[in-house]
Amino acid sequence: MSVSVDVWSDFVCPFCFLVSTNLKRLAETHDIQLTWHAFELRPFGSPPPDAQYRQFIAEKTPAMVAMAKTQYGVDINQGPFGIDSRWAHRAAKWAEQQGQGDAFAQAVLSAYWLQAQDISQPAVLAACAEVVGLDASNLAAILADPLYDAAVEEDIALAQQLRLSGVPASVFAKRYLVVGAQPYEVFADVLQQANEPPASN
C-alpha cells in the first residue's frame, strides 16, 4: 500500500536538501507518494540578507558541508546565498500539475546544492524541467500566471494551519510528523508505523 509523504520545504534550505536524499533513498525500496509543499524561509519580497546575517551563515557553512559529507555522503556545492526561491516554488507547482512534482523538486535541489546554480533564474528552472522530460520552452511566461503564486500561497497557509514553523517538515500518511533533517532510520521507522493500520477505538 502506498503511503503519502507530504514535505514542506524551501529549496534554499540545506536541511531540506539533506532530507530529500533520505526520502529519495526511501522511495527506492518502499511504495511512497511524495508531494512537495512550498515554504519560504524568507517571505517573498523580503529585503536581501544584511551583512551581519551573511557573516553568520558563512561561519556556519563549513560545519554543514562537513556534516553533509560524513552523514549523507554528498559534496555540497551551493548556489548563491540569499536568492528568492519564489520562482522555484512556482515552477514546482507547475511541474506537479504535469505529474512530475517529485522529480522536478529533486532536480531543483540538486541544481542549487550540488551544481551551484541560481534557481531564481527561469532559465535554470527550465533546464531542471527539461531534465525530467517537461517542455519548458515558454516557462517564464507560464509562471507569470497568478495560478502558480496562488498554489504557493495555499501551501504556506496550510503550513500555518498545521502550525509548522520551520522546515523540513515531513508528514507521513497525514498522521506522523517528522521535523528536521533526521537520520534515515527515523524516516524508515515512521514509514513502518504509517503502514500499520490505525488502532481501533
Automatic annotation (TrEMBL):
Protein name (database record): DSBA oxidoreductase
Positions of the DSBA-like thioredoxin domain: 5-192
SUPFAM superfamilies named in the record: Thioredoxin-like
Gene3D superfamilies noted in UniProt: Glutaredoxin
Single GO term (MF): oxidoreductase activity
InterPro entries assigned to the protein according to its UniProt record, in alphabetical order: DSBA-like_thioredoxin_dom, Thioredoxin-like_sf
